[in-house]
Design goal:
Layout (H helix, E strand, L loop, with lengths): L4 H4 L2 H16 L3 E3 L5 E2 L8 E3 L2
Antiparallel strand pairs: 1-2, 1-3
Bound molecules: zinc ion.
The site of zinc ion (ZN) has 8 residues, from loops.
């Protein structure tokens, strides 16, 4: 298993890449039920759930 968004997204990442992250979240169809992170691919989350 590679790096998940859950692991990659931390405070440091958000400070540097907030605009990118927000843009990505808007297009994301998955949320992690454990960490509350969003991603465009369920493989990037540790407990993914599809959202509308
Ligand atoms: Zn997670």
């Amino acid at each position: 298993m590679g790096k998940t968004m859950c692991k990659v997204i931390d405070r440091k990442y958000l400070k540097k890449n907030l605009d990118d992250y927000v843009r990505m979240v808007k297009k994301s169809g998955w949320v992690c039920m454990k960490c509350g992170r969003f991603a465009p691919d369920k493989k990037l989350l540790c407990d993914a759930k599809e959202i509308d």
